[in-house]
């Protein structure tokens, strides 16, 4: 099945001086212009190409990689605005992506960088973008468990913290007390389910919560100590930035964890770092 708006692997059917034609199944043959060819190909060869709808409303092919395919989110810059909507650059030089006014949560201006969800409009069959994410999220039950690792995409910043998209399917919130490192719109990172409230809203953490957080960090510390010859130049006096750079955790959690390892007799805390106990 051919998916317009996504990367497809298509077979070369014929070669010409200006490019080659690919078998796009139900869409017929599609031209891949010569300027996109970076290798010698023959009839029967298979190529990975991105299919989109060109300005003449025909299916076109390119080897350029879009910032986001249909069904994905990506940060894009607004290149122009007209009576139809805003046009953003999405990695395809021949065609910018339209965000209709009806799909803009707030009016967009030239030069602005926004997070965009790409979809194919059923009525017009056009590939368009939207900054209104609610209708694409929370449509399936949130069957997560506490401390489950998930993929996060930072989508919004609010007075409460950062709203993140979980596994491309649900909304979640990272409160300021759970923020580690620098977060910004469009950043992708791993996170953990902190809690699921009675109203279905999901709280997130960037490290495991409870005892699991301590156990996980303790294992990482001991593993890194073993790799580094038994010594690390980090202790309870180290800066939060140095601790975060090494373990992506807060200084408070690090201090509690090495304190526990010390009590268990697994490490020795020295003036300039920690050392594996003999």
TrEMBL record:
GO-annotated molecular function: nucleic acid binding
Residues covered by the S1 motif domain: 3-64, 69-132, 145-207
Matching InterPro entries: CvfB_fam (IPR014464), CvfB_S1_st (IPR039566), CvfB_WH (IPR040764), NA-bd_OB-fold (IPR012340), S1_domain (IPR003029), WH-like_DNA-bd_sf (IPR036388)
UniProt xrefs under Pfam families: S1_2, WHD_CvfB
Domain of life: Bacteria
Family stated for the protein in its record: Belongs to the CvfB family.
Name this protein carries in UniProt: GntR family transcriptional regulator
Organism expressing this protein natively: Vibrio agarilyticus
Lineage of producing organism: Bacteria, Pseudomonadati, Pseudomonadota, Gammaproteobacteria, Vibrionales
